[in-house]
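Entry for magnesium ion complex. Fields follow.
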Amino acid sequence: MGSAGRGMQGAVHRSVLVLARQWPASLKCVCQLCEHTNFTCQTEGACWTSVMLTNGKEEVIKSCVSLPELNAQVFCHSSKNVTKTECCYTDFCNNITLHLPAESSSRPNLGPLMLAMIVAIPVCILSLAVMLTICIRQGRYCAYRKKKRQNIEEPLSECNLVNSGKTLKDLIYDMTTSGSGSGLPLLVQRTIARTIVLQEMVGKGRFGEVWRGKWCGEDVAVKIFSSRDERSWFREAEIYQTIMLRHENILGFIAADNKDNGTWTQLWLVSEYHDQGSLFDYLNRNTVTIDGMIKLALSIASGLAHLHMEIVGTQGKPAIAHRDMKSKNILVKKNETCAIADLGLAVKHDSVLNTIDIPLNPRVGTKRYMAPEILDDVMNINIFESFKHADIYSLGLVYWEISRRCSIGGLVEEYQLPFYDVVPSDPSVEDMRRAVCEQKLRPNIPNQWQSCEALRVMGRIMRECWYTNGAARLTALRIKKTISQLCVQEDCKA
Ligand SMILES: Nc1ncnc2c1ncn2[C@@H]1O[C@H](COP(=O)(O)OP(=O)(O)OP(=O)(O)O)[C@@H](O)[C@H]1O
Ligand SMILES: [Mg+2]
């Protein structure tokens, strides 16, 4: 297992420790990780034992489940071929050994008819799959398709979890408020991830593919990293699970899973699915009204302000800088507000030690959106504020992309990437440096924007995001306040 894999393992144990924390109660249970309390924990909920396949081996965990966790209905649930879990309610009743259902070794001898069926069924399934692929490729109506789709979307046994009308969002809320405040316990994340049915690929980025998947009838997004990019996967999962990061304008993280099938490791990051896709996709397809532009811009500023802000206290959060702000890394939600995504490059600030946890990750941001100080290689990476300033520069470029698509009096410009007119389509750092640092070019702010108050303000914000001196740029909070005032004038609902 790589270092990230070991980190994940450690995290699993941390989540078990969260489960095992003391609860004002009388039921005593076996707890393997409770060395300091003689391997015993106490709870008002239930004793818990679970076995899960981890890297090809059965990993058994025994602990306590608190009442809120019990109410969330996830812990006591076994998942076919993935986990076997039991909850019980008498002292030390979890002092038992569970095993996952045995596979081929315990199969009875099969007759010739049975053997023929075993050979014939996979062949049939394979043929059907080939036919289906051809059918979909040719784009022809296929009566089969609908039937098949219904089948694959059939609720899995895990859906008993949401029988009570709970959505994934409710589940995460329940768990977050009863646990460590950073998301679902890792064993639950694994169970969810391993019971998702992938539906279709919706995008491809530098680090792998993004799929739409189904979990209990709900759409989820699954970002699949190649094992080469294990560090990026681990870092992104780690950042998303920062305490108190959850915010309506930051992509809702659901689960991370590293599944080792013996040959390679599949790395999954599961998040909320937004069917409008990225802001880049959205602006290519749509124009926006003034209200629409303000709503998009305000929601991005709110998300970034939350990310940048340090919240002090035990339930606080560190300041985080994104480092890859661009329209492709922002998703558009159903209500036409945004969620900032792709936190794999982010850095956290430890204000007590005044340190930055720069990940040992070779990935750098997107050249087109890089601030002048990064292109010039003069940014002071020991000062956390520098990273925030660089985010603000990129935010200004995103605002320019949105504002161009704002229709006033029927006039609107076509969608373009920033600097489309001065650098080639896949610019090098040198191309960007020449334009942004040497020639000091910035995207053009059209004269007609002066005729509309909202666009005039957006233009002013952009200019104040693009100063060469990072420290002179606006803060995300200031931008949020300025746009909120616009919002009042324009009477828009964010
Ligand atoms: N949660 C999501 N819901 C819906 N669509 C998504 C989601 N996450 C990503 N996508 C889609 O998948 C595409 C690919 O995303 P990904 O982050 O892998 O690459 P990218 O942002 O296009 O490029 P880069 O690798 O530079 O970040 C996005 O552009 C978007 O259209
Ligand atoms: Mg991306």
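NOTE: The chain has a mean pLDDT of 81.
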